[in-house]
Amino acid sequence: LDQSVWEACAGNSAKIPAVGALVYYFPQGHGEQAYAAPDFSSLSCERAEYLCKVKEIQLLASEETDEVYSVVGLDPWISRSAPSPDDFSLTEDTGAEKSRALSFAKILTPSDANNGGGFSVPRFCADSIFPQLDFSVEPPAQMLNVRDVHGKAWEFRHIYRGTPRRHLLTTGWSKFVNSKKLVAGDSVVFIKNKAGELFIGLRRTARSFGSSGSSHAPSHVGSPS
Amino acid sequence: LDQSVWEACAGNSAKIPAVGALVYYFPQGHGEQAYAAPDFSSLSCERAEYLCKVKEIQLLASEETDEVYSVVGLDPWISRSAPSPDDFSLTEDTGAEKSRALSFAKILTPSDANNGGGFSVPRFCADSIFPQLDFSVEPPAQMLNVRDVHGKAWEFRHIYRGTPRRHLLTTGWSKFVNSKKLVAGDSVVFIKNKAGELFIGLRRTARSFGSSGSSHAPSHVGSPS
DNA sequence: TTGTCGGCCGATCGCCGACAA
DNA sequence: TTGTCGGCGATCGGCCGACAA
């Protein structure tokens, strides 16, 4: 999973520490948020927080829901000298904005998520993310080839039509909605990387529990997406 | 799961020993037929077979495939005296045939399993299992309420029509076929218990492996169905 | 600019008798 | 008696512009 795509799916509020950065690990918070109770048996003493050094970062996506998450490997850090504030502020160098992929997120309306319907493409998304349409033909239309976070290819018909004119995704859209089990309130993220390739990521709304369908969050420590 | 329904689904060739009966347990056969390798670490010595006494019998049905199977609990049996032949021939007392439910099995034809089609009901099945139709109305038809091995209710329209006249299941049948993923060659078993309630069980043909869909048999010792 | 609606057209589903094995 | 076929009517999916927020 490409880092720029992962970041676009996770959103701007998700910050990932750099490998080698110092962070605080809170066992209680880990236990409260993890789906399966973590194994704390190797902890030598009970403390509220542990100063750690980031050993490894994995950027992953759920096979089931397409939601992105990260696995952060930590080493306990024994302070010989007082840590410098800079040690805490290290974040992954994404090339100072310039290598970041261009992305656009939209919350699905009932019309977007309805079976019978297509997807209303906000103008900014069509202009900045999608390839330019050929407006010399009527109606202007093209097939979009996009990949989800697992690398699976999807094809959508992108057309500019109606009165007033607007951008729409039609053919291929409902198959995507059904396959991903999207509902109104979920978000889709369209991403264009530096090579011009298109990706589509998902964010899910909080679901009502108690239904038979169970979508389990991974039991790892993860940064919120 | 009612025993008479289980027996009808399993078929006449499936014989179950009675609790208390003596049986031979073959570890090698168990290992060869089980999906997951059994844990033989508690076996004190290596022998080809072990004389055992049946401690418990569970009659079960696969959640995934509706196929019935049994879990047989065994205790090692130390022979103080030579076992009598009668000890081996004990089978579950089903009330000497008289309490056994009436059942009829049919292998699905391509027409039965096709999406567009209904189910051709053999005359014997309609006459002996289904409730009598009211032939004074044209066409004679009724709704059948049946339960699968999990107790889930299904409804089929049973109609007597066509030239020449024949019994058919129409409305509701294709939903059942799709939901159970039935294909030509699979069998359905219609069962009427003593109370007149209808049940429907399944037997699957040997599937070609290697497909992405994996249907795992339970890893227990079971009697073949 | 874009969310929702009703219209409408084509594809599919599924019920039917004809016919033959 | 019952398996398969083609016909055909009902239903559904999904593309469309109209219109209003």
From TrEMBL, chains A, B:
Q: Where is the TF-B3 domain?
A: 104-206
UniProt subcellular location: Nucleus
| Assigned protein family | Belongs to the ARF family.
How the protein assembles, per its UniProt entry? Homodimers and heterodimers.
What is the documented function of this protein? Auxin response factors (ARFs) are transcriptional factors that bind specifically to the DNA sequence 5'-TGTCTC-3' found in the auxin-responsive promoter elements (AuxREs).
Q: Report the protein name in the record.
A: Auxin response factor
**Shown residues in whole-protein numbering:** 11 to 235 of 567
